[in-house]
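User: I'm putting together a small comparison set for a docking exercise, and I want a reference complex before I start. The sequence is below, and the ligand is inosinic acid. Could you produce the 3D structure with the ligand included, as structure tokens?
Assistant: Of course. I'll restate your input first, then give the structure tokens for the complex.
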Amino acid sequence: MAKNIVIVGAQWGDEGKGKIVDILTKNADIVVRFQGGNNAGHTVIVNDEKYVFHLMPSGILHENKACVIGDGVVVDPEVLLGEIEVLEEKGIFNGKNLHISKNAHLIMPYHKRLDISKERLKGDQKIGTTGRGIGPAYEDKAARTGIKCGDLLDENLFREKLKRNITEKNHYIQNVLHQVGFEVHEVYHTYMAIAEKIAPYIIDTSHYLYTAMNAKKKILFEGAQGTLLDIDHGTYPYVTSSNTTAGAASVGTGIGPTRLDKAIGITKAYTTRVGEGPFPTELDGKEADRLREHGGEYGATTGRPRRVGWFDALALRYAARINGLDGLVITKLDVLDNLKKLKVCIGYKYKGKKITDFPADAAMLELCTPIYEIHEGWFEDTTKIKKFEKLPKKAQEYIRRLEELSGIKAVMLSVGAARNETIMIKNPFTR
Ligand code: IMP
């Protein structure tokens, strides 16, 4: 029986991981975020109430489950505090079930400014970031100048690091961007006020998780974004600044890779992408508008309309390989309920030749055109269906075909946003 399961996005993010993590949390003791920051937007609907989390692990809505923000996450403490306050107001947060790694790097106000300004400078080469300061925060981490959550616990050390960072950043902000710089004392006071509130949660989370594992606790590792946004394995440079793939669950939490039992990939029954970068199966015009409206495809973080397109089997097979997927969760199947015809991309045409392996190379991908197979739609409401066998035959065939093309079996299907609009085929924790 699996105890430690990693959930990752198998596409370009927004696959519906929040809902799936929320459901699987029932079987887990701890939910851990291991990368990314509040560029993520995880939507969970419980009793008709909609919750959108950006930083908080999606398991927070469950009583008696611990939530961990791991070492690999970048934390905007103002956002975190805002999410804690919302949960407190609703009486969901009890202060005992949140743990933040002292190693997690902080997103500072200058990171947000730099993210937005640098994107503007890039013009049509822009990445289309969420503007939340994610890239600049990871840049500082790699440059070994970043400030960690643990530094908030030592006022003098924090002030010293802040001073050094602001001096360097102001140089760029004032002389290159020609903008007003940041004042050390202002940022210091803002962050110290927040530190007072979040300090009790900052601990050595790697040790906490190690101890929990030894006590046979079950842990769900909640990935953010998706495989194709991974900084190493995605469509670089149109990616985020962290590793979004299953391996990151280990380094992003300080848990040895041999302790992870399973990796489950979440994929929509079609494809979406936010921001710039190649997207071979992208639709435009009325067809795109229909799918976008039906699927409610607007960013949970930025509200941006998502780009939408047909299912890409090459991308899924690639995600299966990079993550070592053991199972698939196919979400938003119901969004396809009213379509007469569906297309699935089974190959690309590249410079006159057919290729069947996903090239994780943005320049090459730009030149790829999809080769489709056509499926007939099922034209029936699937949202009330609870068992795979009860799905319309054509929907079953569609799912079976995606499994065949990816080589991975579906363990769950999602046919609506609510918890009960789910078809459990094989619970990854219990079977
Ligand atoms: P950043 O992570 O804000 O630096 O943005 C880099 C790229 O990743 C942009 O194309 C964003 O739209 C995309 N991105 C970041 N987070 C998410 C997410 O949670 N879902 C979908 N796309 C995302």
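The chain is about 30% helix and 20% strand. Residues 155-175 form the longest helix (21 residues).
User: Thanks, that's exactly what I needed.
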